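Example 256.
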Amino acid sequence: MTTSFSGKKALVCGASQGIGWSTAQILADQGAQVTLLARTEERLKTLVNELNGSGHSYLAVDLHDTEALTKALQNQSNDFDILILNAGGPKGGSLLEAKDEEYLESFRTHILANATLVKSIAPHMKSKNYGRIVHIISTSVKAVIPNLGVSNTIRGAVANWSKTLSMELAPFGITVNNVLPGYTKTPRLEKLITATASRLGQSESEVSQMWKDKVPSLRFAEPEEVAHAVVFLASEVAGYINGVNLPVDGGRTPSL
Ligand code: NAD
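Predicted structure in complex with nicotinamide-adenine-dinucleotide:
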């Protein structure tokens, strides 16, 4: 099996930390020319210099701001072979407490941003009859997670968006697949542990242990364990895998 990305151009969203950053590093290690997308220019400037290889760049834009994203994409060539769709997860909390703005904000960041990116990039992929789109979502697509009300709602919508897109783009040599991370050691997980510990009046180590106990593998994932699954689906050899949800969760999701 070869997973060389030599000659391939990749846009990795949510690339300044966590699973997105790990994915960008692996793609660069394997020869891809990577564009990092996140909000903070200073951080991206530093990170782009840490990637192995040459020809990397960055795009500092807030995925929540559809207008700014559209403008940013108009100012560059967008001839990417690989698009990794990823952003920070929606705010936690129960549905009864969720504000309208939380639904609208996550709809913009997770659906409108993806649609804007795909409208700019898919025409180039179609012209080459080749493309890989990988979407980092959550296992809540398969089994909802308590106290992540808005997130569960948006994740389901996003997964259906991806599946529909995979059917539209398949005739053009383009695949669209979803990776569903379980508990993964990133700043996002740290924040969720802190919030849950404060809500339940427990220590952070108690909450961590309680969550690890829910995973058959009895541990959290390293970010690169999820990123390697993303990179595989972004590789040439994964060309006949299309429209799937792939949990990378240590076996936690209780369904196939
Ligand atoms: P993270 O919060 O550590 O990193 C998210 C990245 O997205 C960062 O680079 C951040 O700067 C960027 N980002 C956030 N909002 C943005 C915006 N509006 N515009 C541009 N960039 C933005 O997240 P992670 O843990 O790496 O997770 C990646 C995805 O996987 C998220 O959707 C997360 O909810 C999901 N997920 C994570 C876990 C986990 O345990 N870490 C579990 C299930 C699902």
